[in-house]
UniProtKB/TrEMBL annotation:
Composition bias, Acidic residues: 347-356
Function, in words: Small GTPase required for proper localization of RNA polymerase II and III (RNAPII and RNAPIII). May act at an RNAP assembly step prior to nuclear import.
GO molecular function, one term: GTP binding
Keyword check for Calcium: no
Subunit structure, as described in the record: Binds to RNA polymerase II (RNAPII).
Upper lineage: Eukaryota, Fungi, Dikarya, Basidiomycota, Agaricomycotina
Name under which the protein is recorded: GPN-loop GTPase 2
Annotated keywords: GTP-binding, Hydrolase, Nucleotide-binding
Organism: Cutaneotrichosporon oleaginosum
GO (cellular component) term, any one: cytoplasm
Annotated region (Disordered), positions in chain: 331-356
Residue spans crossing the bilayer: none
Entry-linked InterPro entries: Gpn, Gpn2, P-loop_NTPase
Family: Belongs to the GPN-loop GTPase family.
Superkingdom, taxonomy of origin: Eukaryota
Length: 356
């Protein structure tokens, strides 16, 4: 495929999903696909993990159609890590293949396309290896409006060492990718099983004064000899002052809606099915200038929802669903009654005409 101007290619808004193994990237991509589809937004999931030939979500484009991890390991005698880097470098060298796949996928959508890109969990790809970065930069030059969504398992907040490591990893990804970036604590609905947290949840999401965690580490026998290193890492994080976290429970509608609207605000995305140009512009500027709506007023509500107040919230939500279901059935029944009455009236009119 010859190089062409970017105006000849389709483009889209979307997300680049990163995070270490176990952070829930595949679950997130599947959940995001289901959620956006329910909202009526055209969405396609792109798999860039050559080790996964059958992802758990509907996959529109997959790198495994171009190259697979197993084939590279077998042909070149590489281990999993080396083979993974080779696959992404191969994708970079065959970037035109990716553009062709995306063009074929997005052109029929007439500019309303939205993509979610699932990436491998190998940290080198989005911390210090440049192939993925160059691929994303080339997409950005083709007018793709993308934001990085970096997932971290919420369990990291239960241990000071894990938390500082997770923050450093998120910071390194932000510095490497150099694109709009949102860090997310995934699986936040599991915090109820963590026991009492040393600090409130906002301490971890806002990455507040880390000296408290450094003191905690000094009380751990195996970490005492690394006291100066721990203090230096905490100081480094605070000097950059870049990292903050959102929270996410994939199966919670309010949590997903809050994150989607935040991502939309970062990328400038607006989609209103059937909306006029004026309506879409109004929605865009309202999103850009307004507050981020969501099911929870602040992070303390999130902590209460998934912590000690979970049972009460679950019960209230179940009751709300029951009321919505009853109202929907009532509306359907009334609509059926109106249609039935209209049909009877039509029959009466036909009978009167026949008698006449």
């Amino acid at each position: 495929m010859s190089t062409a101007s970017h105006s000849s290619h389709a483009s889209a808004f979307g997300q680049l999903v990163t995070g270490p193994p176990g952070a829930g990237k595949s679950t997130y991509c599947h959940g995001m696909y289901q959620f956006l589809t329910a909202l009526g937004r055209p969405v396609s999931v792109i798999n860039l993990d050559p080790a996964v030939s059958n992802p758990p979500y509907p996959c529109a484009v997959s790198i495994t159609s171009l190259i697979t991890l197993d084939d590279v390991m077998e042909e070149y005698g590489l281990g999993p890590n080396g083979a993974m880097l080779y696959c992404i470098e191969y994708l970079e060298a065959n970037f035109d293949w990716l553009v062709e796949q995306l063009d074929a996928l997005l052109e029929p959508q007439g500019g309303s396309g939205y993509i979610v890109i699932d990436t491998p969990g190998q940290a080198e790809l989005w911390t210090n290896h440049d192939s993925l970065k160059r691929i994303v930069n080339r997409l950005l030059k083709l007018d793709y409006r993308l934001a990085a969504v970096h997932l971290t398992d919420a369990h990291a907040i239960t241990d000071a060492a894990k938390y500082i490591s997770a923050v450093l990893l998120a910071l390194r990804a932000m510095l490497q990718l150099e694109m709009p970036h949102i860090n997310v604590f995934s699986k936040i609905d599991t915090i109820g099983g963590f026991g009492d947290l040393p600090f409130n949840l906002d301490y971890y999401t806002e990455v507040q004064d880390l000296s408290y965690l450094v003191r905690q580490l000094e009380e751990v026998p195996r970490a005492k000899r690394f006291a100066k290193l721990n203090a230096a890492m905490a100081e480094l994080i605070e000097e950059f002052s870049l990292v903050g976290f959102e929270t996410l429970a994939v199966e919670d509608k309010a949590s997903m809606m809050h994150l989607v609207r935040l991502i939309d605000k970062v990328t400038g995305y607006v989609f209103m099915p059937g909306g006029t140009t004026e309506e879409n512009l109004h929605a865009l500027f309202s999103s850009a200038s307004g507050t981020i709506p969501g099911g929870y007023a602040d992070i303390s509500d999130v902590q209460e929802r998934w912590g000690e107040g979970r049972e009460a919230f679950d019960k209230a939500e179940e009751e709300r669903w029951e009321r919505e279901w009853a109202m929907r059935k009532q509306a359907e029944s009334m609509a059926g009654g109106v249609e039935g009455a209209a049909g009877v009236a039509g029959q009466d009119d036909d009978n009167l005409e026949h008698m006449a």
